[in-house]
Design brief:
This protein is an alpha+beta fold and 193 residues long. It is 29% helix and 33% strand. It contains six helices and ten strands; from the N terminus they run αββααββββαααββββ. The strands form two sheets. Strands 6-5-4-3-7-8-9-10 form an eight-stranded antiparallel sheet. A two-stranded antiparallel ribbon has the order 1-2.
Amino acid sequence: MMYRLAAAAGLFAMSAGLALAQTPATTPATGTAAGGTVAKTDKDLKEYQLAAVSKVTLAQALTTAEKQGEKGRAIDADFEKADGKNPNHYSIKVVYPDGKLVEYGINADDGALYKTENQPIERYFTRLKPADFQKATVSLKDALVIAEKKAGGGKAYEAEVEREGASVEYEIKVAQADREQTVKVGPDGKVVD
């Protein structure tokens, strides 16, 4: 009798172990449905959620873009979800001292430059002048670090430069586990409320 009880307990433990082994792990990229846990696809996730788990940071993508030419300065960066033609990527605009504006596509998974496109600078600089950037003591890359600290962690994934008075102001979106937060940083590196 004792032997049968031990065998039954062993079978029960083994079947419970198998059932648990077949249950998918819960991750931030899963949801629940009436039938149980369902994995979300990239298509179901918001930009900030994809950016939060991308292997390449915005700061790394900015460095890659700025290295493509001499003395270029990143002025705009957006995280974009994959579509039929492009992977998840950062789209980064870099302005050069000669007035040339180039948009670079940096793959968010491996950091590779995969796209280069010259942009008409006149369209972009209707509100900003190249001289406005010279007055800022903080670069866009420095502003990312400040914004991430202000947000209490997370990962910067979009940045925009706006004109504020006679200089620039950086507006940075930071992806956190369950939301996104926008932080504005002035040309002097101080957070603007």
